[in-house]
Design brief:
This is Enoyl reductase (ER) domain-containing protein. Keywords: Metal-binding, NAD, Oxidoreductase, Zinc. InterPro entries: ADH-like_C, ADH-like_N, ER, GroES-like_sf, NAD(P)-bd_dom_sf. This protein is of the alpha/beta class. Helices cover 27% and strands 24% of the residues. It folds into 2 domains: 206 residues, Alpha-Beta Complex (Quinone Oxidoreductase, Chain A, domain 1), CATH 3.90.180.10; 139 residues, NAD(P)-binding Rossmann-like Domain (Rossmann fold), CATH 3.40.50.720. It starts with 10 loop residues before the first strand and ends in a 6-residue tail after the last strand.
Length: 366
Amino acid sequence: MSATTAQVPSEMLAAQLVEFKAAPVVQKTKAPTPSDLGPYDLLLRTAVASLCHTDLMVQAGFMPLKHGLPMTLSHEGTGVVVAAGASVEEFQPGDRVMSGITFHGCGHCDNCLAPADRDWKQYCFDTDGATGVMTDGAFAEYHVVDARMSCKVPEGVSLLTAAPLACAGVTVYRGLKVSGLGAGDWVAIVGAGGGLGHFGVQFAKASGMNVIAVEARDEGIEIAKKYGADHVLDAREGKDTVAAQVRALTPGGRGVDATVNVSDHPSAAALSAAITKSHGTVVQAAQPPEVTVPFQEIVLRDITIKGTMHGGKGVADEMLQAVARHSVVAETQIFDGLAEVPRMFELLEAGKVKGKAVCVIDKELV
């Protein structure tokens, strides 16, 4: 496809990080143009961009930026194709797209060359960055993504719903796949009423699993109930109490077959292991500074701990089809326009966001 036919303004509004540990600034910046595109790039007119806890890590200076500051935030975006690079075949102007995160993988490492069913491309460390994490992201009127990691949004799924799925949704969806569970199995989701967890509850139920939700916030408990968890437990009662409750609920008093942990709380990983049966699996999706689990869980009970990180195109496409098929819902707190982005950060830092904070950037596209 030609990358040179579309008209894009020379400037655009963007919410940018201009100083670490400071609020983002909404300002005019140079807009990407079709002539800037690499062979596998897509230029999107942004519809919606969502906020993730990883954005707070970028703000704090934990991520190695490819081009320094200022940098446009948000790796959870949707939009409509304006132009595409010369080697792009799957997408056409006007297509609705959920943005990919990995940007220009090297194409020759073990992760890039692994079989598709391993879903390792997002683990490539020799990339040109990660959209909205190391390079410019979706809190802008236009943004550029790698077509090889981006997905068409299917009919029946709104661009508003798809934005938080770009990271939160695909991360917990892949976490459930990594667990190896299927219909009839027992899964626990720790942090089940949060931005990732409420998607996990819905995906697990759609797959026929028995779902135990564990939460430590009143609003999170209500959200987990709202989206169909079979049992909802309060983590504030303590690890030993919750573990006893899980054993009482599961066949043979064994515990759940696997736990997906999407909570950053320092005690969440240990709780996740405690409620999982011997020889079971804990999938760690949350990103606290340290993950602490007593040795007894690993050595004496043979708990396996696996990590997971968002997902490649194949898993993301599969997830979007599941969203369309099962009418998966995004619990969102909607903000109108880029001017609201600094307030979104304030609320997320204060723990006052219900579900996912999403910014509608272009109402015409939503």
